[in-house]
User: Fold these one by one.
Assistant:
Number 1:
Amino acid sequence: MKKNRGYAKVEFLANLAEIKELFQKGCTKRYIYDYLYKKGKISMTYIHFCRFDLSGNIKKKKPTSPSTGIRTASALPALPGNGGGGPCSRQQDTFSMENKITEEELDELT
């Protein structure tokens, strides 16, 4: 079933309170996505889920090379393990890729 444009944002905003709560408890972005997806609360892809920040806005894309419009190597995100990170890497007020609580602990909280 094809969704209307903007439906992913509606899903994200509808679950924003729960997303923030799980993040504050130490859950990773991947775990939060899997948890909401399995519960049927979201249907977007994980890649699209990673585009949102904790305020529900979509992060701006990195700029392209002004002369050709082609992304250069310097405009590409660094690979994990090389000192950088992809679109879901940990920065202040963003999601962490580390598990801080176990699934059993989360089940006790929910």
Number 2:
Amino acid sequence: MEATAQMWERVRDDAGLLTAAEVAAFTGVTPSRAVEDAAAGHTLAVVIDGELLWPGSQFEADGTVAMIIRELIAVAEAHGYSRTGQVFWLYSPTTYLAGGRRPVEVLHPDPQAVLAAAAGNMGVEW
């Protein structure tokens, strides 16, 4: 439980965990549309303590969703990752990226590297 709380703090400290109202204000959609987009796999949202929240790292500075997010969600779900698991993967170092970086650090400058890392890392079977 403590490790999970620490991960959520890391996400919150990095780019924030946004409410539907905050996503709506930032992206220019309604809060209900923000929820619909999350349900459809267009954005990545997780339930934390009963509240639906969006990691801010998936949004570009202009309020658009990073183009890779839909594909990343699809890859992760194809390999059985929950939405929480997807966020944890984004914020955890991986040897599938140069220097063992966290995917969230590479998300905006090199989205294709993140997709390739996801496909490789998430597809590993032991």
Number 3:
Amino acid sequence: MKSEDYAWNSRERECYENGQVSLPSPYKLNILDDGQKRLELEQILVQLPQKQLAQWAMEHATRFIALIDIGGNLKKQQILTQVQEVFEGRLAEKVAAYELRQAGFLAQKLSQQAKSPVSKYAARVFAQAVATAHMRGHAIVSADYAVKVINLQSPDDMQAVISERKQQIELATEWLKSINEM
């Protein structure tokens, strides 16, 4: 794929052009995980252009929105709506990276105001998905935060982790098939 489709961020684009994209990427958080399933996911994600990667991340993140509790559903919905509008604007090339980053900071407020650890990490799944419209590397971090949520809901349950990774892989595979049909 063309490097400008692969990455909108100049640093990530340069790595792609120079063959310096290496998998698996390092973990940014401590989680109980199936490293092989994570690598399998990354091997699919690396094939998606950034726009579709960001769409995958947001679609994946929507499964966790119901777990976000900041004590007020109206405030939560206002933040989600505002952030998603900016996210969609970025994908449509109508919003600058700066505006998206500002929306990302707003999304982080969901995590900061969370009423429980599950809520906090569910909010981070969403915030990292938003950030994927700026830099590709946030996609795997969003997926890892989803695994963190699973770790909190089902401690030491590797089968639950594998099930989550399989859902992530299935959704990524659907996105990959959709771009191959274009």
